[in-house]
Structure formats: C-alpha cells, structure tokens
Amino acid sequence: MTTASIKVGNDPQVQYLLRLGDSCLILSQRIAEWCGHGPILEEDLALSNMALDLLGQARALLTHAARLDGQGHDEDQLAFLREERQYLNPVLMELPRGDFAFTQLRNFAVATWLLALWSRLEKSGDAELAAIAGKAVKEARYHQQHAADWVVRLGDGTDESNARMKAALRTLWPYFNELFAADGVAGLGPAWAELKPDWTAQFGEVLAEAGLALPKESAYVSAGHKGVHSEHLGHMLPTMQYLQRAYPGGVW
Amino acid sequence: MTTVIAMDQACTRLEAAWEVLRQIPDPEVPVITLDELGIVRDLRETAGGLEVVLTPTYSGCPATELIQDDVKAALARFGEIEVTLQRAPAWTTDWISDEGRRKLKEYNIVPPGKVAGAQPVRLVHRNALTQLACPRCGSDHTEKLSAFGSTACKALYRCLACLEPFEYFKPL
Description:
The complex is a heterodimer of chains A (252) and B (172). Chain A is mainly α. Chain A has 8 helices and no strands.
C-alpha cells in the first residue's frame, strides 16, 4: 500500500516555520515515548503534558506553514506525508530519547531556545505567528523551569546521577550549535544566531548550579535544518506516519 | 418602528443564547463554566445563526475539540453555530472570574494567583517560592508533589497537616 508523499515549496517563510514547527513536532514525538515509561508517575504526567503542549504548537505552526505554502495541504499532510529530507528540524530533536538525564538536559536546552525565540516572535510582523508565540511563550516557561530543576537535581545529586548528566552533556553538546545556525532565511522572526546570548547565559546559569562544567566549543554543526538528518529520523518517521500511510486521509 | 422591534428581537435572541452559553461547564473541571474560565471571548449573530469566539487555554489542550462540540450542541436551536478559535490575545488565568475562583476553591482546587504584576520567577531555586494554603484545612504546611497534574493546567500538592492531596490551578 502506498500513499504519495508531498513536498512543500521553497518559500523562505514556509521554511522558517517548518524549522520551528518540525522542532516542536519531532521533539514532542520523542518526549511522548516516555508515556508509560517515566521513572515515577509524576514525571510520566509531566513529560506527556509537555509533549502535548509541543504538539499543539506544532499543529498551529504547520497549519500556518501549509496556508503560506498554498498547495492546499493541511497540518496532518505536512506532519505525516513528507519524506525525511523535507523535515527541517535540527538533528538535536530527533536523537533517541536516551535515559532520563539525557531527556531532561535536552528538554532544558530546547525549552531555553524556544523561550528566547517565542518571546521575540510575539513581536513578529506575521500576526498569526505572533499569536501562536504569545500562547507558547507561557508554556515554554513552565517547560524550562521543570527541566532546569531536574538538571540541577541530577547534576548536583548522587555520583550515579551526576555521571549520567555529564554523559548526557558530552553527547548533546555538539548538537546545540545547530540551534543557532544561519540559514539565510529572514522576514518572519529573528535570525537564529540572535538567540545565542540569551541561551548561553541561562544554560550556563543552570549548569553552574548543577555543578557541571561547560565543555569546550565544538566546531561541529549538524544540518537537519537543511534536511540532512541523522539515521534516527528515518527510523522514527515510519512509526509516526504509519496510520496516514496505511489509511490515507484517516482522521480521529 | 419595525426596525426597533427587529433590533429588540435580535437582542433578546442574543441574550437568550448568552444565557445558554453561560451554563456550559468545562469538560475537564466541570465545577466551573467555560464563561467563568474566561475562554468565551465573543458571541455574534451571523446570517444563518451564531458565531462563538473561543480562545484555547493551552496549545495542546486535548479538551479544545470537545469544548467546540459542547458549544455547538448546546446552541443548536439558534441555527447554524460557527466556532472560531482566537489565539490572540493569549488566554491567561487572570481571566478566570471571581465566581469561577470561588467555585474552584470550593471544589478543593486552589485558584491561580494573579499573573499581571507578579514577580518574575527565578530560573533556579524556584521551588521555595510557591507556598500554598491547603484548601481543606487552611494549613500553610504543604508541599508540591508534581508540577503537572491530571491536566496540563494544574499541579498536584499535598497538605502535610491534614495529609490530603489537592490541586493548584497554575497561573498562566
């Protein structure tokens, strides 16, 4: 059984929205993998709730992207019928969920990035994007605080939790660079590099509190925002897309 | 004269619809109504019926679609009901009415503090900041169990005096 894949156009504004919308979508899917697997019930609830917020943000962004793309697609088609190279999220979002320390450190890094982004997008000249940001910025604040608590608690915890947090930091560190990588797309919001000072300050503050040293700068920049992904996205998409591929046009 | 009567009827019709709309409970916290929750932004007459403007609470709130269906069903007798979701200005818990807050408290959910004018939350050591009184016994001796509760909009607490758990509607 095959369902034709779709492609979006090269409009820079659509690309900007996809870089953001796909980040929310793919991270939401990764976080949702914790549902039923959280170390304690409270964290199961917290992670599932955060995945839901991200999914809601992704839906709004993809709906808006589809409208600007003008090919008559909807959010579901954009989420489930594109192929790997058409997703523009940074590779960071698609990395396997890892252990609990890895998940919390990534959540903290991404929430801090999104918070810096949403608070600028509230002033976007694009009214719809500004409205989405106005709502999302409040949600990101809760996500950031929650993950920051865990980064401190685990980093400044037992030998085991500290070792796990250090390992997570070593693995994730090179992937953070892509969050600020330029793509030559302007118009809808800030340049990605503009977010770096805020991010670095807040990330550093929490890591210091957690007793974790920042690794040396890495020269590596992953290229998910250009559609060049890690092997992991290719394995994730069939799980995500199965229903739409098997039952084209299926809705809840 | 006829114009006046027509306008009168329109007013009455809209008022009657408001009466119905004000009664619709929130599906997840049924003790308060959608109106008390502050998510009903407007009600307008259209050619074939009515348009209801709602604002979602959280981007990913799974109740949003259920709420739209509830509104359509309750207002069905007024003709075709159109529900518009309006994102801006973003919903805030400051829009929960005083009556809504009273009902939440009676239901043992601590209503949210005011967002407007509140102190910005520090990124680290924020846990020490929120000290809530137990809605059952009034004791300040409480602790947070979970930042996210049975719905995205609530956190779970426990009273260390009466030992009962309670929920807190988070300020947003």
